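User: Second chain of the day. Same drill as before.
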Amino acid sequence: MSDRTPHTAIPEAVQPASLSDRIQPRPILWVITAVAIAMSLFQMYTAGIEPMGLFYQRSAHLGFILFLAFLIFPITGSSRPRGTVGWLVDAVFLTAAFLSGFYIFYFLDDIIERAGWWSQTDIVMGIIATLAVLEASRRVVGLGMTIIGMIAIAYALAGPRGALPWLGDWMPGILSHRGASVDRLVGQLYLGQEGIFGLPLGVAATYVFMFVLFGAFLEVTGAGKFFIDLAFAATGRKPGGPAKAAVIASAGMGSISGSAIANVVTTGAFTIPLMKKLGYKPKEAGGIEAAASTGGQITPPLMGAGAFLMSEYTNVPYIEIVLVSIFPAMLYLGTVYLFVHLVAMKTGMKGMAAEDLPVVRDVLKAGWQFIVPLVVLVYLLVNNISPTRVGFWAIISVIAVTALRAGFTLLVLDPREGKPLTADRLRASLLNGVRLMGQALELGARNAVAVSVACAVAGIIVGVVGLTGLGLKFSSMMISLSGGNLALALVFVLLASLILGLGLPVTAAYIVLIILVGPALQNDFGVPLLIAHLVVFWYSQDSNVTPPVALAGFAGAAIAGAKPMETSIVAWKYAKGLYLIPAFMVYNPEIIMGGETWYVIWTGIIVIIGLVGLVAAIEGYLFTWMDRLSRVLIVPGVIAIFNPDEVIEAVGALVVFGLLALNWIKGRKARGGRADPA
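Assistant: Same format as last time:
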């Protein structure tokens, strides 16, 4: 790396840790490390060497995840040691975690043989597993998810034939059902195919875990540093350079992270202070990073756990979802980029000095190896290899290129600088490689705990929906409330996603919402299946940036030293593409489903015009300051662009384009013919 590289580089290895680690005795930390590494090795083995049957894989995965959850997150919380009573309680839950996975794994053949005629042991084990999942959710994901899971269970038991018949009297007629007994509910949730061990956990136990582990390997080997340095090298000299680097780096980090919050704390730790130094207000710096990091969740080739679930639910190959998501992701990130550019131009910001920035050539020279695994990943996906096996080989490629890079440095580069190869240096290099692998294996398992626990609870909700027919009831309510109006229905989906986002992680919110509203969008409003899923997936991201609970915004505020609510409002403003682009997909499905070439190109052009016009109207600036009348007239033009009627679309696009062109002419005159720097 050149000595011109700025002091913004992240450490070469990120230590896996949690808030509760500081109160854990050292032997327990060793146990956590051992269990996490064992889990990652088990997942690697079943992904690339000896695949397992679905329920063997899922039950073993759940056992590992619950065991880690109860080890990492004590019953006493992250601020107090467990103590004797805490250890006694957690010993019970650790035993429950082991039994939850082991019982299905060991007795699966017997359980299948007596399907529907469950033994008393089956029922007891099902109750234990369900309670363990809910308690793990309370500790790992939060109380909101746990409460929703408990409400779902209570709803299933309500009704004249249920275990809680009196509860049915409190439900509106449209939500009433006959009710389920405890045995029937446990059979559905623990012993059936649509409960805890259903599709959500199945995806988490295969595709999601392997790509989370892939991200962990990239992270500990320094890929985050590479993406951040590359983004700064590309945009640092431009006005508002650190903010633009945040957008690009966050898109890159989206390829190795499964969380918008993780993106914020990784890239934001370096971009936010530089944005503040350059002149952005603290709330703007935190909001920009939050909005950009949310974009990482919808950016191919990795798009968070939801994209893998989408592939399973729609039976659309993952690579096709990746391909159709490229342009919408570019639109979103381009919208955020334009926002930060206009803020920089309005306030007269300058770029960073060249001596404070890395050189692209030097960055690529030092980190080319991080591009190879992404190329391998995309190549294998394009060739229709199973995503689980793709994740396995992508991890192997990270290990291989990292080892080759280390070997080349040790054998060739270091001797040229007067550092000859010695036995001690070779041993130290090998030990460092083993240490990094151990860190990656542990970090991957730790990072998978939250999403897997959320998917297990989502399985409870999905199981209850299937048992009670709640999905059809919810769809009927949605049609009734919207009066058959698609635009109003999309507003309800957006509001529902926001409400769910108050208590659920993004992936869980997507699962619950698509189960409830997906059938109505597809069957009653005629939205194509893939677009319905994409809309719900995109809208499920909004809880990251939308007040009153905007976790990515809060993370950005913490780093920026700004007020959380003000920062979240800025993030919400910059993330407007998150709301408009899915609506455009619905009214212009050709942008996703394809069509005649000229029409697809036209559709792409008008959505770009609409988004640019909207950003300009919100900021009141593009090329130069916009007058109030132009800002007002742009809004109906943008709305017209989202109309499915081609004539109305064209008129709206002409209005917006004409107003922007007039402002460009005005800006050229004001600057004496000079171009506006990008």
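DSSP finds 29 helices and two strands in the chain.

User: Great, on to the next one.
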